[in-house]
Model the fold of this input.
Amino acid sequence: MAAAVAMGGVFDFMDLSPFSSTALHAFEQFLCGPLKDRTDARRRASPLTYVTSNSPPLLLVHSDIDPIAPYSGARLMERRYRETGAHVELITVPGAPHEFWNYTRWFPTTIEQCATFLRRVAVDTALGVRPLSPSSCRPQHGCSHNLAELARDSRRRDH
Done:
């Protein structure tokens, strides 16, 4: 996998304290039994379990008031990625519902942000470099993040 985008995701099934009773019931259905008896299954179902320094670049897009998948889970995933040295970016969508990407108000911006991330990561991967985060990319430092230029330059090197 070259990269991933997660919108409103659940990343940790071990700490159940942030979840509503409705979510907990859904988790029991997903894990085929009472959560108290499914500790190993909860650990194996938690994406946090699998984060390593070799994890693919990840873009997290999450509402800061998500009532279904709490924002704290996205922050935890971001922290785990950073601790391992894997590339992660978090975009916070203020005041949005859980499924914000389905609303006209948020859809165009969300899709553009995801597409920009994936194009940037694809170019960086093609060049054989670690992805740059938008915050590390500043014109005054000689980085224009011009994707067309980077792609053209990478094709020249291949010939």
Q: What stands out?
A: The radius of gyration is 18 Å. The longest strand covers residues 58-63.
